[in-house]
Design brief:
Blueprint (H helix, E strand, L loop, with lengths): L1 E12 L2 E13 L4 E5 L6 H8 L7 E6 L2 E2 L5 H11 E5 L10 H12 L4 H10 L15 H13 L5 E5 L7 H18 L2 E6 L10 E6 L2 E4 L1
Helix pairs in contact: 3-5, 5-6
């Protein structure tokens, strides 16, 4: 489903060039639940951004279903990302001026592919019925993340990219969100690629990509 070939990621730190990882390759299959783990600053989020089409690597290629995504124009890459993937953030990235329902529908409006049946299904699956007319500032962290998950799924993506989705949540909400993601992975056949530093989340993975002294180890 996703093939990563010989990617290298570097960034400028003052006058120095820092290498996060170099010449790394791996494949991600449909319905994998991948967790990217490692210490803070090791390059977890950079790797997620490269695989998700948000950050072009210094070297190497990333293929989605045999498409070399970084050979596409910016417009076509944005279209592919919108239609084939969803992204979930640690800080939710909801629009405070929109109701919960309008936040969920936003992705469909952007893609101009309205599917009210899918919206209703997501609302029920994520137990959002009582929140639809509320605005994000009055929601708990767990409620905001459930709304963000519904929005990410609103275009029926093949893969979900999750950047520390439980980093701002307490233990109870963390378990709730991770259980929901596992259910989505197993019942909807959605591939999940998730960054976390929380060791208790590793039990949800079918495979783990771990940073170890600048190298990636894929279990």
């Amino acid at each position: 489903m996703i093939k990563v070939e010989n990617i290298t990621c570097k960034y400028k730190n003052g006058t120095n060039i820092q290498t996060l990882f170099e010449q790394e390759s791996f494949e991600i299959n449909q319905k994998d639940f991948i967790i990217i783990s490692g210490p803070s600053g090791s390059g977890k989020s950079s790797l997620l951004k490269i695989v998700s089409g948000m950050l072009k690597p210094n070297e190497g290629k990333v293929y989605w279903q045999d498409k070399d995504i970084y050979s596409l124009t910016n417009q076509n890459l944005s279209k592919v990302r919108l239609e084939e993937s969803g992204f979930i953030y640690q800080d939710f990235m909801l629009i405070d001026e929109l109701t919960v329902l309008d936040n969920i529908k936003l992705v469909q409006h952007l893609s101009k592919k309205i599917n009210n049946e899918l919206i209703e299904e997501l609302i029920k699956k994520l137990s959002l019925e009582k929140l639809l007319t509320k605005y994000p500032p009055v929601l708990s962290g767990g409620e905001k993340q459930r709304v963000a998950i519904a929005r990410a799924l609103a275009n029926n993506p093949k893969v979900l990219f999750c950047d520390e989705p439980t980093g701002a949540l307490d233990f109870v909400a963390t378990k709730e969100i991770m259980d929901l993601l596992q259910k989505i992975n197993q019942e909807n056949n959605v591939t999940i690629i998730l960054v976390t530093h929380e060791q208790e989340n590793l039990k949800y993975a079918t495979r783990i990509i771990k940073f170890d002294n600048g190298k990636l180890k894929c279990d």
